[in-house]
Amino acid sequence: MVIAIVADKAYLRNSLKEKLASVENDIEVIIEANDGTDFLKQMKTSKQLPDVVLMDIEMNELNGIETIQRAAPLYPSVKFIMLTVFDDDDRIFSAIKAGAHGYLLKEETAQNIIDAIYQVHQDEGAPMSPGIARKAWKWLTSISLQPAKEKLLMSRANWSLLEKRKEILKCSMEGKEYAQIAELLFLSKHTVRQHMKNIYSKLHVSNKIEALQISLKNKWI
Q: Does any domain span residue 138?
């Protein structure tokens, strides 16, 4: 597993490397950058792309959220996890909209950070610190769908999810990983992943947030 660390202070990057190395020897840091601009420059010249990027938010030239907005379309195989001290709603939701695959607070243990790295790399969920997850789901259940989504929803009024897919979505909303869902519902992890892909296809959405929005709006879950 190869990763990148983007944070504006060298001592923070070094501290994080030491923290991860104390638990996991199979993670190699191939890019260290002090801000978004530096990161994007290094990505252009790097012989190997990182599997996962641990991204701080507040940085000098280009902050973490803006960096993900620029980098995600250029490097679709790369996964981004916000690793920050900020837990305010604006930053959380801006990061999610920008394309972050996870959002962790720096207070998380080394093992939790490592677990999150492997989780996003294997497409097994969107890891979040507990407090962040509570805010995200509260936001998810309260926001209104965009007008285009409302029209799309009306056209699917007679469509309903299969019972098994409803159960998978409920578990997903609770923050469970694919492996946990598979064990709980007596399915293989591959089957859970395939169900989620089918849900996205049926609803014409591209991510879990949109799928949950539509499902909650229709009271399928």
A: no
Of 121, 139, 127, 200, nearest to 168 by C-alpha is 200
Edge-to-edge order in the sheet of strand 2-6: 28-33, 2-6, 52-55, 79-84, 102-105
Residues 156 and 211 in one domain: yes
Candidates 174, 11, 14, 16; CA nearest to 109 is: 16
Cα–Cα dist 66/197, whole Å: 28
DSSP alpha helix (H) spans, 4-77? 10-21, 36-45, 64-74
Region of 81 please: left (phi>0), alpha (psi -120 to 50) or beta: beta
Same domain flag for 52 and 149: no
CA dihedral angle for residue 38, residue 43, residue 48, residue 50, rounded to 10 degrees:
80
pTM above 0.85, yes or no: no
Positions in the chain whose pLDDT score sits under 50: 144-145, 148, 150-151, 153-159
Q: Is 58:88 a contact under the CB 8 Å cutoff? A: no
Residues 108 and 176 in one domain: no
Count the Cβ atoms, other than its own, within 10 Å of residue 97: 12
Number of domain units in the chain? 2
**Same domain, yes or no, for 83 and 164?**
no
Domain membership of residue 102 as a residue range: 2-133
